[in-house]
Amino acid sequence: MPGEATSETLSATPFQWKRLWVILALVAIAGFETWDGWTNLAIPDSISQRSVIGGIFLVAHIVSQPILGAAALVFALIGRARYAIIVLAANIVLRWLTADLFDPANWKITGLWSAQETIVNLVIMPIAGLTAGSFAARNIRLGLATFLVCLPTLYLIVVMVGFTISVLIYGF
Fold first, then answer.
1. CA neighbours closer than 13 Å in the CB half-sphere of residue 97
2. Residue extents of the structural domains in the chain
3. If you compute the radius of gyration of the chain from its CA atoms, what whole number of angstroms results?
4. What average pLDDT values come out for the chain (172 residues) when binned by 10 residues?
């Protein structure tokens, strides 16, 4: 009978599994961004050392990061991956604007680590954020958009873990 309950389980389609992984990745990254935003709410002393525009963007990012992270977390939890990607992409672009692009000292390259960090933070991350936001706005390639929007946060986590390991091995 059509109304009978059966013990057979329906297998999930590959699309459903892909969507689940996208949502899980977005929940993890949005949760980390929310936590990072709440821990950065104390306004740093470096505002006075920045240009006026750089200081404005820094304050805007400090205030909006926990809000954007929480919004992305809510969107991801209710299954709106597209909107969560757009919110996280906006956070990436705002983080890029806090780099004080108008100060030539930020473009100095003094060594291999400095070159890598400058290129990643000032070139690759904004391109990844803008590309992910445009993919999500057009509702295409959401898997790639999720990877691109997770890239900056994963980079920061890897740098943080690397720094912690180096301090544990060599000390300050």
1. 20
2. 14-170
3. 20
4. 58 78 92 87 66 78 91 95 96 85 69 77 91 95 94 89 92 78
